[in-house]
Amino acid sequence: MTRLGVLLLWLLHPLPLPVLALIGNSVGGLLYLLAGERRMVADTNLRLCFPQMGEAERARLVRRNFMAFGRSLIERNILWWSSGERIQKLVRVEGLEHFEAVKGHPAILLMPHFVAMDAGGQWIAQQADTVCMYSNQKNLYLTDLLLQKRGRFGKQRLYSRQEGLRPIIKGMRENLPFIYPPDQDQGIREGAFIPFFGVLAATMTSVPRIARMTNAKIVPSITRMLPGGRGYVLTFYPAWENYPSGDDVADARRMNEFIEQRVLEMPEQYFWLHKRFKTRPAGEAKFY
Length: 288
Description:
Order of helices and strands: HHHHHEHEHEHEHEEEHEEH
Number of domains: 1
Shape: globular
Distance between the termini: 28 Å
Structural class: alpha/beta
Strand order of the largest sheet: 1-9-8-2-5-3-4
Radius of gyration: 19 Å
Largest sheet: 7 strands, mixed
Number of strands: 9
């Protein structure tokens, strides 16, 4: 089934983006009906993060989130098989000067899990060689495909989480920017419980530690999916000042607060399908 799905994606990739967006919305609507467990995860996350939100409004937001996720799945075929020129035309860039300012210097391009993050990542890959971290998929074919497609522009260095930070640090010391999505639950072994929308979430404290080891600047980068298949907007934000501060927990809290602000700007595009609050403090009941 995986290979058939990939074949269908490939067959669709020449279509105009507005058509792909319509298909993606339909796929997302179907997933909303069929993927009961993930629908529950998204609903739980939103209930925890926005307790004041009514049930009907939350259900509408979950459905919109599935539709945005469906679009990200279908439109990935552009990122995997279309020309670099097509991707460049579809991605409008804001704050380019903040990206240019750190080229040739150690930098962490902080890229939280919004559904269009891969579109931004493929634009960046055409501008600079980078180091990236990925998670192995349960399906080996899919893992190999993701690595191949994410690395098809430039000389991207991709390392699994199991390889640790050493190759990442090595690449950064060669002045390659590190594209880092920091906002998924990876357990508490190398992190701390930091509030995210007022709920304690297992949060990696690796960003300030890496910045300290490499003297790197932190430049957040967020990609927004435009409605109607009108493309994407990749926004680079100014490098954070006084970071790291020497207090890893405070620095991780600053990171979470930044992500919260961006989520409020487009809540339907954040990756709510992930079990963000899976790891709980000792003695606390599980949410999922």
